[in-house]
Predict the structure.
Amino acid sequence: MSIRHGLLALLERGPRHGYQLRAEFDAATGSTWPLNVGQVYTTLDRLERDGLVVQDGAPDADGRIAYRLTDDGRVEVGAWFRSPVTAKGAPRDELAIKLALAVTTPGVDVLAVVQAQRTGTMRQLQELTRLKARAHDAPDELAWSLVLESLVFRAEAEIRWLDHCEARVVRAASRRPAPAVTGAPARQGSRR
Amino acid sequence: MSAPVLVLSGVTREHRQGETVVRALRGVDLSVSLGELVAVMGPSGSGKSTLLQLAGGLDTPTAGRVRVEGRDLAELSRRQVAAVRRRSVGYVFQDLNLLPSLSALENVALPLELDGVRGGLARRAARAALEEVGLGVLAGRFPDEMSGGQQQRVAIARALVGPRRLLLADEPTGALDSTTGEQVLRVLRARCDAGAAGVLVTHDARHAAWADRVVFLRDGVVVDQSGPGAGAESLLTGDGAR
């Protein structure tokens, strides 16, 4: 996640200092990916260096400096919203790697690996759903509930993928030729 | 937790198909209490629907016990089982079976009237059940004047009208789009929270996630369960999330 673009987008609303930016970022995303203030100020320094933000007036009584967008910064925010987010290459996915190794490592009970993950992901999905049940439909909850639902849909996709893996592993096992029974039709209905 | 409304102990159900015996369920234990919603997931043929049929007294186990509100269904006469089905158990199926010639209110009141409850009383209970699912204002409408989601909520109201405390739902969101399906799940969840025990059979993980417990069935056996998660907020940093 680019903190850069997150902060630029927040500055589109008007000048803000670092603490405000952090609070507004956390409010929109339900503190799902909390920022620390150090990260915020480091990023603001870089944005200033790149000419995308400038300091807005003198420090306030607490010594906090507000920043505002430059024209270049505004162009950058627009471009960010318009362009799709693309994952750069396939990020290393521990679960996919684990399953790939499980099906190729002798003696591993692949179905048990799948089920353990399914239970774990379902538990996660239940927790997310509990949070969602508490979120109201008020307008200020919209941003946060959309973030929550993105996590919900991802967990659901993982469970569907696990179901798919399981079906393929079972099918592959049933196709493996049993010794000395070549030509016999595959037994059906053993999965009931 | 209160005494369980539904208890399956060591339940096995075999079907004879010619020479072979197919075991649809093998030694299943399951207990559901008031306030609890349990989801059952598994691939087709894993025994999900058989489990629901047994729980509702629509089928009898080959071995094991089914108790509904403390009564062992095997010890009851056929007539007593029918009475348990009418009075203690509500069913919601994908196929709604609402009667098209009756209004929402009349559809919901029907099971009570069939059970001998007087008309006025039955209609009052039906109205309360419809209000509970957020459809009080549509009580006079006929099924074909309502959306799929509204019809499904009428079916849930009908399943829970009167004193029934066990709710059995088989793919209740099957024909609905995802937003409407979620509304139905919210109603089911709220009804269980308000004092019912629910069993929900679904293939949809997002819907199963509304349950307190998810039971995974495979080849007629419970292979795993995901109980109440340890530390509900562990996923997101602290309860500051909300």
Residues 4-228 of chain B form a domain with the Rossmann fold fold (CATH 3.40.50.300). Chain B touches chain A through 35 residues (CB under 8 Å). Chain B has one domain: 4-228. The longest strand of chain B covers residues 4-17.
